[in-house]
Amino acid sequence: MLINFPYVNRDSTLHRLDPRSKLILLFAFGFAAAQTSNAWFMLIGLIGAIFYYSQGHLKWRETRRAWIFIIFLNFFLVIGNYFISGGAIVQGGDLSHPHVLFSLPFLVLKSRPPYLGPGPLVLRVESVLFMLTQGMRNFAIAFLTIPIPYTTNPGHMGIAFKGMGVSDKFSYAIDLSFRFLPTVARDFGTTLDAQRARGFEVDKLRGGLFSKIAKLAPMVVPVVIGSIVGAEDIISAMELRCFGVWKRSWLAELHARSIDRVIIMLSIVGFVVITLWNILGNFYDSGLLHLLHTQGIPGFLAP
Predict the structure, then answer these.
(1) pTM for this predicted structure
(2) Whether residue 177 sits in one domain with residue 91
(3) Does residue 71 sit in the same domain as residue 198?
(4) Less CB within 10 Å around the terminal CB: N or C of the chain?
């Protein structure tokens, strides 16, 4: 029912990294990758992200639910966008002289009622490569994102954001959000066991969709009410401690190591270089500075 991200206590390179270096790397790569549609840049970034992910020594059974969700979401976004646009949306490509592979009969969007009708789905080298580039970008970001909750102690997330210059209120909100899903999952499991002990069979619900939802009330209501009561307890505890009145201190402290400083420095420098490269490339129609704005189609695919 819930996809939570439990912390896996293990000794690995990613576990030993400072959470701030992981977050800065993720943000820097994400913003840099959004500025280019060049397949070669995305391929290099994907390979680097896979190597980074491998340093966490995370097992498939530990991250299976998260990966299934990401694979489905990526497939829906990339393939769905291709079908909806008919392969006509391409960034960094020239569709004035497309390299058509073949076309298939399909349903396309129209500007007049009924707005949907038969039409050709054209497969071009440019549109297919752009679709693959989108997929590589999304998976590369996922390879950098998934290790964060699995290799970072939840109690250090708020401290990490505070160490990055974020306000106490926002940092503590992030800290609570990482604790919320595991807490709700634990309460849901406890309520499910209690209701099953009373004879409530969740797996044998009958009736239509709305009937099944109504019959789930013995499960949903206690979890929701418990979450609300727990939130009120946290609010009362924060008010008693005058949270937000003055600058607060954190119980634990993060200490960056040499490898953390190197990752942070390379992430920031890489983002700045890509951003400057992107800005300067807008003044040229070709050449090295315009490389980020091209697809990088191999010569044997588009001679």
Answers:
(1) 0.79
(2) no
(3) no
(4) C
Give Cα separations from 302 to 86, 97, 101, 285 (angstroms): 20, 11, 10, 19
Residue 193 DSSP label:
H
Rounded Cα gap, residues 296 and 39, in angstroms: 6
Which among 247, 255, 252, 251 is positioned nearest to 168, based on CA atoms? 247
Q: Is the dihedral of CA 185, 188, 190, 193 positive or negative?
A: negative
Within this chain, do residues 43 and 159 fall inside the same structural domain, yes or no?
no
Taking every pair of C-alpha atoms in the chain, what is the biggest distance, in angstroms?
A: 72
| Alpha carbon distance 271, 23 (integer Å) | 14
Is the same domain home to 108 and 240?
no
Using DSSP's 3-state secondary structure scheme, residue 120 falls into strand
Domain tally, the chain: 2
Let me know whether 76 and 174 are in one domain: no
Range of the domain at 224: 155-254
Same domain, yes or no, for 148 and 165? no
DSSP string, 137-159: HHHHHHHHHTHHHHHS-GGGHHH
The tens digit of pLDDT for each residue in 99-135 reads: 777 777 777 767 777 777 777 777 788 888 888 999 9
Q: Which run of H or of E encompasses 179?
A: helix 168-197
Phi, psi at 158, each rounded to 5°: -65, -40
Q: Are residues 247 and 186 in the same domain?
A: yes
In the chain, what percentage of residues exceed pLDDT 70?
87
Higher pLDDT, 183 or 93: 183
Is 236 in the same domain as 160?
A: yes
Residue 36: which of 275, 288, 297 has the closest Cα? 275
147 by Cβ neighbours in 10 Å (0-12 / 13-18 / 19+) ranks as buried
Cα separations (Å) of 42 from 45, 61, 134?
Answer: 5, 27, 9
Q: What pLDDT sits at residue 43? A: 95
Cis before 114? omega within 30: yes
Token digits of residue 166: 């974020």
Place of tokens 């290799």: 151
